[in-house]
Amino acid sequence: MENNKLKQIKDKCELFNQFLIDRTGMPAQLFKETNKLLEKAYKEQDSKVLRAADNDINEQIKHMPILLALELKSILKEKLNIDFEIVDKLQIKAIEKVVKRGKINKPEEYELLLNRVEEIYTDLSLKDEVKQLNELLAAYVKK
After folding, report:
1. How far apart are CA 77 and CA 105, in angstroms?
2. CA-CA distance, 74 to 48, in Å (whole number)?
3. What residues in the chain have per-residue pLDDT under 70?
4. Which of 95, 87, 131, 97 is nearest to 112 (CA)?
5. SS (H, E, C) the chain
6. In terms of Cα–Cα distance, which of 90, 103, 94, 91 is closest to 137?
7. How many whole angstroms separate alpha carbon 81 and alpha carbon 74?
């Protein structure tokens, strides 16, 4: 993964942490160790750790109160030029690729499909998609 992308992920994570401190009143002390780990991962060019943190933030944003999520997305767009519409489209494309292949190959794909199921399982119009994704998830767990 290129250095610019890793820097953007590190900056996104730090901005997210600062946002939680500023907007939700979470104690800054909670994020000191996390920010140290992010800095270490960036210095070591550890894309796996940074991608995991990035994916975690994307999931947390989905579960935030809508106004808070919109505010954070706006800040991320303004400061880091991160467009969440593009992020969402890329996630859908990645899911479609796994579905087309008919098999989950790695833990990141498992997480992606699991998160999608959690997003849509209450939407009855998407019950076929939920069933298909659950079958892939179950097959992955069995192996």
Report:
1. 32
2. 26
3. 1
4. 95
5. CCHHHHHHHHHHHHHHHHHHHHHHCCCCHHHHHHHHHHHHHHHCCCHHHHHHHHHHHHHHHHCCCHHHHHHHHHHHHHHHCCCHHHHHHHHHHHHHHHHHHCCCCCHHHHHHHHHHHHHHCCCHHHHHHHHHHHHHHHHHHHC
6. 103
7. 9
Residue 27 in tokens: 């104690």
Please give the model's pTM, rounded to 2 decimal places.
Answer: 0.70
Q: Report the sign of the C-alpha dihedral through residues 87, 88, 92, 95, in that order.
A: positive
Q: What's the pLDDT score for residue 3?
A: 84
φ, ψ of residue 43 to 5 degrees: the values are -60, -35
What is the per-residue pLDDT for 8?
95
pLDDT score at 115: 84
As a whole number, the mean pLDDT across the chain is 92
Residue 1 pLDDT: 60
Among residues 47, 56, 48, 58, the alpha carbon closest in space to that of 3 is found at: 47
CA–CA dist 65, 139 (Å, integer): 33
